[in-house]
Amino acid sequence: MRRYFRMILLAGLIAMMAFAFAACGGSGTDEKSTTESQKSTEQTEATEETTTEAADDYDIMKGSKLEANGSELLLYGNDFLLIMPNNDDWSYEQTSPTTLTIYDKDSREDGFGGELVTIMAFDPSDKSYEDFPDYAVAGTGQNVNKTFIALFPSDAQFDPNDSEDEAEYMELFNHVKKISEGAADSPFQTADSN
After folding, report:
1. Helix or strand holding residue 137 (H, E)
2. Would you call 121 helix, strand, or coil by DSSP?
3. In this structure, how many other beta carbons lie within 10 angstroms of the beta carbon of residue 188?
4. CA-to-CA distance for 85 and 110, rounded, in angstroms?
5. Is 137 exposed, middle or buried (0-12, 13-18, 19+ CB in 10 A)?
6. At 98, phi and psi to the nearest 5?
């Protein structure tokens, strides 16, 4: 009887182990392929993250420099050139990795903003700039795969009660307002400009 009881107990134990083994995924081969599948998915996600980060690593002023050329001052950015008057009336600041603002120094110091133009770099598929009130496509930087947009201010950026400040601002503004892709007198150029 004891022997019969042990056999039933052993058979039950074997049955429970077989059931547990089947519930855990069966053979070691399935477990191995599941692990490999998870690794493959993780590698794909890591590659996508790295690619996204690489695409988002663009810096509009990477490698920037200023170079005097007679009456012109050449501002080189990441895959573009902006030609400005060679004077101390204007300056620039990078406000984000993809944004550069050119401004009139006196108007800014007087508290009126002084913004002349903001150059923004967009991915070619991003057309959100079309919602801006006053912009021009400045050029295409094919080396960095960016579309450059010139965004112009829609409000007064100078002291309207100071005619000298207004004249200085408007001279600079009229210069940057020529920015437009394909325009012969555009002060903004890329390697792909004509």
Report:
1. strand 135-141
2. strand
3. 25
4. 21
5. middle
6. -115, 10
Retrieve residue 58's tokens: 């663009």
User: What digits encode the pLDDT tens for the residues 137-175?
Assistant: 999 998 999 999 999 999 999 999 999 999 999 999 999
- Spatial distance between the Cα atoms of 149 and 143, rounded to a whole number of angstroms: 16
The answer to whether the beta carbons of residues 98 and 120 sit under 8 Å apart is yes
User: 43 is written with which tokens?
Assistant: 């590698």
| pTM for the model | 0.70
Contacts of 58 (CB under 8 A, 6+ apart): 78, 97, 98, 121, 144, 146
Residue 117's nearest CA partner among 186, 35, 32 is 186
Other Cβ atoms within 10 Å of 1 Cβ, number: 5
Q: Are 187 and 83 in contact (CB under 8 A)?
A: yes
Phi, psi of 59 (to 5 degrees): -125, 115
